[in-house]
Design a protein that fits this description.
This protein has 358 residues and is an all-alpha fold. Strands 1-3-2 form a three-stranded mixed beta sheet. A hairpin with a 4-residue loop joins strand 2 and strand 3.
Length: 358
């Protein structure tokens, strides 16, 4: 019976973020600007001591421990080594542990979902944009991508590759954020290199290119994916580390940070991320304009896109569908009402950024 009150952690973890969402200004002033920077700075510095993802190691340990303990308890229950009440107590302990992890998620990062929008934080104008503006942005991005593509390394199939391995590029992304922070103080806090996930192939089956783990403050990246968006994925997860929680906003920040890099490979990855998102919106708005846009892509860009699409197409299936559904529900729960479709807001942010004369 002593464990029952601790079960309240579950409803607290569910309803507290709902309450926080009603007070974005308070969250920004007290949590995102004061509490979270201290927590993340401490965690980032600690975790930067190793290239290995601490979160990944902890996850494996937890899964093994839970499976083993559950099997042991079931065995002892079946053979009457323990009373049923002991087994129930074990299950209650698992629920309590889940409640603790849920609340830690919000305390250590998740309350950033309740911040004001990036529009407000960057003082960008919120207004409708025309198809012509979208087309102009796409053409601009395509031209920039084509120029950058000429300066990166190809493999034997003529596809963009990372000649020095992913770690050298991950190490360079914090410098890009440092430059970005000079123009936009919102991103001026120190960042650390993202980490490659050892079991990245598992992330690919789930359709995941990267994941930020709040409990350890680590940006983790799927390093099995094609090089095309691997670096922008690292910049995206780093944006989460800076407290940019919403996926669409993290994508936009990823694009910005990559363009501030002096490495053409990083800049190319970020520009292609923006071009893909903007191009998809243009296709939905005007297929003829999109066809004209696509005709401007260089042969090298087309090869990179074909390789990227072929890679992810190979992982389509029930696992990927289930993971997408889970992610969709997670985004909706955290006030991203359009779920996975909320990633499209990145385009609006890019158009507002360009409209500011950038």
């Amino acid at each position: 019976m002593k464990k029952l009150p601790w079960l309240l952690l579950l409803p607290i973890g569910i309803f507290l973020p709902r309450i926080a969402a009603q007070y974005p200004e308070w969250i920004e002033l007290n949590y995102s600007e004061k509490i979270y920077p201290v927590l993340s700075a401490w965690m980032g510095k600690l975790n930067s001591l190793t290239r290995v993802s601490i979160a990944e190691c902890i996850l494996y340990a937890l899964v093994i421990a839970v499976v083993v303990l559950t099997l042991v308890h079931l065995y002892r229950l079946i053979f009457r080594r323990i009373p049923f009440s002991t087994f129930v107590g074990y299950l209650l302990s698992l629920c309590i542990a889940g409640g603790v992890l849920l609340n830690l998620f919000y305390v250590m990062w998740g309350f950033n979902y309740s911040r004001p929008s990036l529009y407000a934080l960057l003082s960008f104008p919120v207004e409708e944009r025309t198809t012509e503006e979208l087309e102009a942005a796409c053409l601009r991005l395509a031209q920039q991508a084509g120029t950058l593509r000429a300066s990166v390394t190809e493999d034997e199939n003529g596809v963009f590759t990372l000649k020095d391995g992913y770690e050298a590029y991950f190490d360079a992304i914090p410098s890009a954020y440092a430059r970005l922070g000079l123009d936009y103080p919102l991103f001026s806090r120190r960042t650390y290199a993202a980490k490659g996930v050892i079991s990245s192939i598992g992330l690919s089956y789930a359709g995941i290119s990267g994941i930020f783990i709040p409990h350890t403050g680590e940006p983790n990246v799927n390093i099995d994916q094609p090089a095309l968006l691997m670096l922008s994925s690292a910049a995206h997860e780093t944006a989460h580390y800076l407290g940019i929680a919403r996926e669409d906003e993290a994508n936009f920040v990823s694009y910005l940070a990559c363009t501030y890099s002096d490495d053409p490979a990083i800049a190319y990855s970020g520009t292609m991320l923006a071009l893909i998102h903007c191009g998809n919106k243009l296709y939905a708005a005007d297929k003829e304009k999109y066809a004209a846009l696509y005709a401007t892509y260089t042969d090298a860009m087309v090869r990179d896109l074909a390789n990227y699409n072929a890679y992810w197409d190979a992982f389509e299936g029930p696992v990927e569908e289930a993971a997408t559904t889970l992610n969709d529900n997670y985004l909706k729960f955290n006030q991203q009402e359009s779920g996975v479709k909320s990633y499209g807001m990145m385009v609006d942010l890019i158009l507002a950024y360009f409209a500011e004369g950038n």
